[in-house]
């Protein structure tokens, strides 16, 4: 498909936007990145995603595709080259399952830490995050067999689904002092995180941790009347919740 | 085919999520062994096959478990791709649309219908039904484009999105019996679609009886004071 008109509506800090960016990079597809202005939603976004009004939205030949992992699957199907989803039906199902789990359980547990009403609930949420990482460590071990990525020698679907959260995970670690990717608990994931972040297709799309920390602090200052009592890690997660609502 | 004998489905008879897997298997003419689970006493096989969620449906094919209803449907379509109708559209954009709307069904529709099931009084159920109907409005509008003028979202045959939404029809019909409301009253496209879907041979063969679901809903409500229906 030569001379495709490919646009991606997004925002630099959003983990969900990172996903299609990585996928497009893996396929070597050139695209125009349309950065949404902070605090407002463009006409194009509202017209392209009237149901959710959220980023990312991929526009291919003017047709909008929404929901980050659905966009990643679309990119995998629409362009040849690097395979993102495995070709084997069972492994495809496993990849889709973990992509679903990351968005359905793991990430909400992470952002849920800040919303936990009691210390007990907070402790439980943190445990859920670590339990999830343990599951994913096992998946990496099983699918990896010594390979660097969930996708084997190359970045695949699970790598993209999980790896897109590394920026905010690191920012959280910086501000909260709590280490989520712990070599003593999930050594494979720690190694994976480094390799993933250094990958050509990822480097340019991964936001800098310090910039995310700055962004979170800016948001806190902006909304300080409402979140004065919150600790730094809560600020970060509130920012992330805000980002996810974009 | 030896492979077909090695297909097992763990489920609950009234679960729309399990119904999805059953419809997909039936569309492909796949024979399988069905295991009815008891939510209060989950089998070892279920706990071993779905340690993350411990929920149904679980498809076990040649000993390998696949979980999450629409992921199971896609798996069935992939494995038995040469058999029966195609479930996921072959065009990438159409496939993305089918996935998007199926996600919408699970993300927005299911919780809204959950409120209907959990409504403690008939009035509460009626109010929740009206909310749930509003949630279907975008699908009502999308129907024409998705169906390309045919009977189903998948066109001539039942497809991915038909299965995602249609699996709820038995609960919608049960809700209509309980509330006296005609659910698709203001949704003519979906009303026509529901009629076609409900009349489809494959659907007729796998859907539980509406009255059985009505009884089931009433029993749970009476016993546990409005718990949710079997979920995945």
Structure description:
The complex is a heterodimer of chains A (246) and B (232). Chain A is an alpha+beta fold and 246 residues long. Chain A has two domains: 3-78, 3-Layer(aba) Sandwich (Glutaredoxin); 89-203, Glutathione S-transferase Yfyf (Class Pi), Chain A, domain 2 (Up-down Bundle), CATH 1.20.1050.10. Helices cover 60% and strands 7% of the residues of chain A. Chain A is built from twelve helices and four strands, in the order βαβαββαααααααααα. Chain A has a four-stranded mixed β-sheet, with helices on one face. In chain A, helix 1 packs parallel to helix 3 (68-78), helix 7 (166-176) packs across helix 10 and helix 10 crosses helix 12. Chain B is an alpha+beta fold and 232 residues long. Chain B has eleven helices and four strands; from the N terminus they run H-E-H-E-H-E-E-H-H-H-H-H-H-H-H. In chain B, helix 5 packs antiparallel against helix 6 (122-147) and helix 5 runs parallel beside helix 7. Chain B is globular, with a radius of gyration of 17 Å. The two termini of chain B are 30 Å apart. The mean pLDDT of chain B is 92. The chains are: A alpha+beta (246), B alpha+beta (232). Chains A and B meet through strand 4, helix 3 and helix 4 of A and strand 4, helix 4 and helix 5 of B.
């Amino acid at each position: 498909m030569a001379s495709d008109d490919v646009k991606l509506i997004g925002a630099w800090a959003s983990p969900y936007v990172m996903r299609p960016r990585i996928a497009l990079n893996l396929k070597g597809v050139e695209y125009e990145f349309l950065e949404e202005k902070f605090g407002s939603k463009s006409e194009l976004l509202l017209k392209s995603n009237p149901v959710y009004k959220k980023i990312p939205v991929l526009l291919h030949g003017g047709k909008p595709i929404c929901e980050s992992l659905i966009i990643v699957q679309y990119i995998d199907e629409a362009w040849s080259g690097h395979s993102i989803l495995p070709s084997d039906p069972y492994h495809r199902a496993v990849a889709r399952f973990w992509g679903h789990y990351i968005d359905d359980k793991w990430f909400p547990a992470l952002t849920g830490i800040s919303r936990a009403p009691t210390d007990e609930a907070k402790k439980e949420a943190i445990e859920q995050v670590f339990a999830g990482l343990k599951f994913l460590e096992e998946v990496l071990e099983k699918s990896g067999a010594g390979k660097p990525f969930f996708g084997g020698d190359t970045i695949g679907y699970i790598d993209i689904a999980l790896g897109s959260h590394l920026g905010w995970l690191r920012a959280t670690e910086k501000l909260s002092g709590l280490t989520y990717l712990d070599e003593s608990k999930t050594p494979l994931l720690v190694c994976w995180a480094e390799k993933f972040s250094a990958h050509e297709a990822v480097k340019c799309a991964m936001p800098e941790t310090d910039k995310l920390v700055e962004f979170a602090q800016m948001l806190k200052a902006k909304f300080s009347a409402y979140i004065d009592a919150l600790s730094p890690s809560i600020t970060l997660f509130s920012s992330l919740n805000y980002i996810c609502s974009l | 085919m030896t492979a077909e004998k090695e297909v097992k489905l763990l489920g609950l008879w009234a679960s729309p999520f399990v119904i999805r897997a059953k419809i997909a298997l039936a569309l492909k003419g796949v024979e399988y062994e069905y295991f009815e689970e008891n939510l209060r006493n989950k089998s070892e096989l279920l706990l071993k096959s779905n340690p993350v969620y411990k929920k149904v449906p679980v498809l076990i094919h040649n000993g390998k478990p696949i979980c999450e209803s629409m992921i199971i449907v896609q798996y069935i379509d992939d494995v038995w791709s040469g058999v029966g109708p195609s479930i996921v559209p072959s065009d990438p954009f159409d496939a993305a649309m089918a996935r998007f709307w199926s996600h919408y069904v699970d993300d927005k529709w299911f919780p809204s219908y959950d409120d209907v099931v959990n409504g403690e009084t008939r009035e509460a159920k009626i109010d929740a039904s009206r909310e749930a109907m509003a949630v279907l409005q975008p699908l009502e509008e999308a129907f024409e484009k998705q169906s390309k003028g045919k009977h189903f979202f998948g066109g001539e045959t039942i497809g991915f999105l038909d299965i995602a939404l249609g699996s709820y029809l038995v609960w919608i019909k049960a809700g209509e019996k309980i509330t006296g409301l005609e659910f698709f009253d203001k949704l003519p496209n979906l009303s026509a679609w529901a009629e076609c879907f409900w009349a489809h041979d494959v659907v007729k063969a796998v859907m539980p009886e509406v009255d059985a679901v009505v009884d089931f809903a009433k029993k749970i409500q009476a016993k546990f004071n409005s718990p949710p229906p079997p979920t995945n």
